[in-house]
Design brief:
343 residues, mainly beta, seven-stranded antiparallel β-sheet, three-stranded antiparallel β-sheet, 3 helices, binds zinc ion
Length: 343
Amino acid sequence: MLWDCPGCGSKGLLGLTHRHCPSCGAPQDPSRRYFPTDDQKVAVADHPFVGSDRACPACDTANAARADFCGGCGAPMAGARAVVVRGEQVAGGEGFEKDSAESARREASAARDAARAAKVVPPAPPKRSWLPFAVGAVALGGLACAILAFVVFGKHDATVELTGHQWKRVVQVEEFATVTETAWRDQMPVDARLPTCREEERSTRKVADGESCSDVRTDNGDGTYSTSQRCTTNYREEPVYDTRCTFTVDRWRSGREARAEGAGVTPAPAWPEVSLRAGTGLGAEREAARSESYTLTFRDEEARSLACEVEEARWAALADGSRWLAPVGRFVESIDCSGLRAP
Ligand SMILES: [Zn+2]
Ligand SMILES: [Zn+2]
């Protein structure tokens, strides 16, 4: 490491050997050490590293780690703290090409500021909060939406007359048929026939692709530094291919549906007659899901026709021409049959 004498302006003094300025005798300030350029660097021979320098508790002079007494004032070095060291520098990073006493000073002062900030919790800056305003705006927007929804979808109780009953019952029918499917070969069903296969990208994997290395300089804290190399592995994505097959296979698939529908309570609703093609081979049919719905239609005092679905038992129990109270839409033609009650 090098240092510049702030007293007489001598530059490029050696951190390890020039503990004092050879021109004016000023002591070296370890916090102003900087990394030399390639041209400036001097190899240090036979220098055992004993640890970072320590600052004298009495006069702040930097002393070698093994010193028991300060070379400047003679005070005992017991309990002395290590001097500030420079941050690591990576080739290509800031200051690597040209370091200076000025950079060292900036770095040391930034470190002091950070240490002070960590110790003292800064008082929270008084801030004008926009939160109440935002909450107010959201609340206002919500209210507007609610009013709009109330006006458009709002309901009020009205007297309605039951005018009709409708019902519908549907049976889904599945057919056993030859279908075409696609799957990865390892997931193909055992009864797949006539597969035609080709290679397709199924996934990707990361593969190592060389290393990126940089020189790194580390301040030893005793006026010397060391250089090392740091490497990270590079990776690239590589496609992984697999075999994808298209094949035919015999499967149950949804086919037609049988439906029955009618109006009125009598005759009672019935499931449609479903005649299935029997057998177990291709073309055979079987019943699948069933569904049913029972609809009541009403007329309100404004002569609007309103409809809703109910359970079958309730549907059958209400007589045409009977009058009811029910929540109906103000502007949309809707009726809520769960709120149906005697007037
Ligand atoms: Zn000097
Ligand atoms: Zn001292």
